[in-house]
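so my prof wants the structure for this chain in the tokens format not the other one, which i didnt know existed until like an hour ago. anyway here's the sequence
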Amino acid sequence: MCLLAGKEQCDRRAEEFIVARILLVASRFADVWKKGFFAWEYKKKKRNLDVALEQLVRYAAALENPPLQVVCDTDRFIIRTAWTNSVPESYEIGLDELVNPAKLDLLHSVFFDPEKLRPTRTRAGLTKEAADKFSEIAQRLATHGSDEEVAHFINQLVFCFFANSVKLLPEGFLSRLLDRAAEKPERAQGLFNQLFAAMETGGEFDLTAIKWFNGGLFDGRNALPLDAKGIELLQSAAGFDWSQIDPSIFGSLFERFLDPEKRAQVGTHNTGVHYTDAAKIMMIVEPVILRPLRAEWEIAKTEIEGLLEGTIKPPMRAKVRSRMSPKEAAEEVRQRYLERLRRVRILDPACGSGNFLYLALQGVKDLENFVNLECESLGLAPQAPMIGPEIVHGIEINSLAAELARTTIWIGDIQWRRRNSVYSDPPPILRKLESIECRDALVTKKDDGLYVEASWPEAEFIVGNPPFLGGKMMRTGLGEKNVEALFDIYKGRVPQEADLVAYWFEKSHVQINGGFAKRAGLVATNSIRGGASRKVLDQLATECRIFEAWSDEPWIVDGAAVRVSLICFGTGDDTCCGGRTF
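here's what i got, hopefully its the right format
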């Protein structure tokens, strides 16, 4: 290679590669690791390099999520990008292609300038394109069914496209179905009815085996009619890589096109900034949920290390009068902590299209995976992740948003498993999400017509972004009877002049005081810092600790930029407000 490249260039490259080699950090999780650059796995000739990539994916968290994943044998290299929130790209280089300066530069970038390989296409951009495409389809369906029927059918289609991209549907199956529908559009409804029926229970479609999905999404309801243009739009949408759709914004974008009131606020191709980014939501999820769970893991990890190092004596076995081995005792500590994670319950009592619940679930699953990888590095046996959507609960008054929330969580859970090389799909593929309830979170109307306070399910953590509606606008927004019922039920607890969001703070406070929750984090308009709404916070602060707060942050509500306060309160010994004032 030196003769072909020139001595001066080759000397320079050789020196650089020597420097790189000095910087490489050995790891039990990869053959080679350069922090912040790549993880690299080597296999013998003709071995399956896809399996090697899956190995790197599984251990990415333990390797601090390097932006590049590289595998090679004696003939070829495969480089795959892994930046968060970008659509991954792959490059393959044959060993004999390194005489090509462009190919050599590609490999050089792996060692010295990975930013050159950062993809320009983002998941957010892809998601907006997909939402735009399906919004047009939804609008074409508006004359064929109610808003709820259209929403349900669109959700089924969206999930089918996602299932197709992640190979939960047979390869090429969806494209063939759309091609057949395009030949005779009047057959499209019947074809989708057959597909959805097979997905409901598991079965066959035209001699093709279809897995059992159900979960409530495929529930026997019929598809809606599609015309030639609608099928053409679906064929175009099939070209997207739906495996990379970002569920944390898809529901928010999509909701605006399926909800008549919100649809009027935005143009068909103007989805721009109409969602709240994940970083903002994590400002609540991180301190309320993940911080205390990580602190508990540090205590458990210290115990595991002590047992394995011999500084802590293993306990006696419960049924047999003999002492556990250090490894047995360490495994018991791990299992105790993992079981604690599996018992976590998270509630969003105004869950909308599920963004808070999606990110909270992802965070807990990431923590479970991290714990298992740390235990593996300490010498304990590998263990498959177990946490799924059953840990999240939601309340949402809008049936469209509630269904979007379920779809968001389903897609996010499957994406997480694929992203972490977990390919087991025990039937049914979609776990039941009856914990996402469609009802009012504040008031319940009984069969006899009387109104009572709505109950919330018990949950350790409460997070969310309740609706913003000023006290003076509540009668217009909610209706006279509903507002009078609200005032009567919460009399003496929430001033009548307070913003609607204050009622969620009051109920969260009651849940914590009653021992039905431990910590809460909610978004409010920044006006909660004063006036009648402030009285609710002042009362809360006398019985709970506000351990984190931001008084004036930018937020997006229905496409409009507003200023909000983020308030986290409840139990724990966190340093109050992180040094900030509220």
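also thought this was worth mentioning. Residues 303 and 559 are 49 Å apart (CA to CA).
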